[in-house]
Amino acid sequence: MALLSVVLPAYNEEMMIDKASECLTELLGSEHIDFELVFVDDGSRDQTWIKIEEQSRKNSAVRGVKFSRNFGKEAAIFAGLAEAGGDCVVVMDCDLQHPPETVVEMYRLWEDGYEVVEGVKRSRGREGAAHKASAGMFYKIMSKATKIDMSRASDFKLLDRRAVAVLLGMPERNAFFRALSSWIGFQTATVEFDVREREAGESKWSTWSLVKYAVTNIAAFSSVPLQIVTVAGAFMFVLAIILGIESLVKYFGGQAMEGFTTVILLLLIIGSLVMMSLGIIGYYIAKIYEEVKGRPRYIISKTAGGKK
């Protein structure tokens, strides 16, 4: 029988580990699916790892991986993919906002021959107006930058073993799982789901964390910001030509060029564009520096349970 691995990144989720383990075990067992649950503790500061160890002792299908510190969700996902031994792998949040029942639907589509099954959001659940607006802006920027429709995309998806091998074979350290898993291709299906409310704990995503997430992943997946620098430079060049022609016309017409305020404003605009451009270029250089150093995406300090 084919083995399904479910990868569950966890950061300060002590109140949801037991619930997620028990819920998935009961559901997948009732569907007669051979499975394993791979929890990845992303350097939690609470009792998350203790809960994972307890579940691994109670349930032979549960395994755990603990990072030496917080490396981020992307690192946790790739660590889970590397540890998973299944013929197909589902990545989902352990807070159960991704409906467990959808995992079964994804698995059945995989049995029908699909190699990537994308979970797309039908609704985002209850969110504050500010958070919803910032999330909407984030996904619009990401969609334009990556050339992939990210408006309803999520990390909730199933990957065939071949697709997992391709992702793990990519040498880049700053990987954006949500976009890369779509970029690799393969025979793909989609499943819609409604984001559920949290049963316990608090969301780890704030408006500021979304901004940082957007900047990091746009730089990791796209060179669009560098093209923006080129566009800004071309715009200023055209503006300079227009002002130069105006200055020459007035000079040969015997009029003095006026506008001290205009000169100051132009200097401020140009200076701001130059500084922002240097900042964008510097950010990319920093990412190149990180890639060249070749440090690992994550460091595993402990494991729990054994492979099935």
Give the SSE layout.
Elements: E1 3-10, H1 17-30, E2 34-41, H2 48-58, E3 62-67, H3 73-83, E4 88-91, H4 100-111, E5 116-123, H5 129-146, E6 157-160, H6 161-168, H7 177-183, E7 188-194, H8 207-221, H9 224-252, H10 260-293, E8 300-304
Parallel strand pairs: 1-2, 1-4, 2-3, 5-7
Antiparallel strand pairs: 3-8, 4-6, 5-6
Compact description:
Helices cover 52% and strands 16% of the residues.
Structure report:
- The chain has 308 residues and is an alpha/beta fold.
- 52% of the residues lie in helices and 16% in strands.
- α5 (129-146) runs parallel beside α8.
- The longest helix has 34 residues, at 260-293.
- The radius of gyration is 24 Å and the shape is elongated.
Structural key phrases:
308 residues, alpha/beta, 52% helix, single chain, 8 strands
Provide the structure class.
Answer: alpha/beta
- Poorly predicted regions: none
The count of DSSP E runs of length 2 or more, i.e. the number of strands, is 8
Work out the strand percent: 15-25%
Quick check: average pLDDT? 77
Count of discrete alpha- or pi-helical segments spanning 4 or more residues: 10
Radius of gyration, in Å, reads 24 Å
Shape: elongated
